Give the backbone structure.
Amino acid sequence: MKTHLFILAFLFTLNVINAQEEKNGTLKITIENVLSDDGTILASLHTEDTFLKAPGVASAEAPAEEGRVTLEFENVNPGTYAILVIHDSNDNKQMDFDASGMPTESYGQTGDINLYGPPIFADSKFEMTGEDQEFSIRF
């Protein structure tokens, strides 16, 4: 009887451990309409807490190539995220603006773009379930 109870307890423990393991996935982002080979394409993965307030929870970059550039975020935990991307054509590691406050470098995001102001997390967010996902972002 004790052996049966021990086996049941052991199997229950294994089930609990397996249920608590989160599967992490890869996010593949294809940035379309890159206008030149100048500079670098910078992407950042954000939670609602970091969106437009702090560096993202992960970042990726690649040399700019006219046309299309692909970036990946690997081992991403399940959760709600948004991705912001800029073409840092002068390699100063920040978005540049003109005197009126309009961006002078190409940018994009997941989801819908706010045409009348800065990006909004609610419009940009997506759910990472642990499965690999792909996004296309157009500058």
In short: Confidence is low (pLDDT under 50) at residues 3-20. Residues 86 and 107 are 4 Å apart (CA to CA). The longest helix spans residues 2-20. The first strand starts at residue 25 and ends at 34.
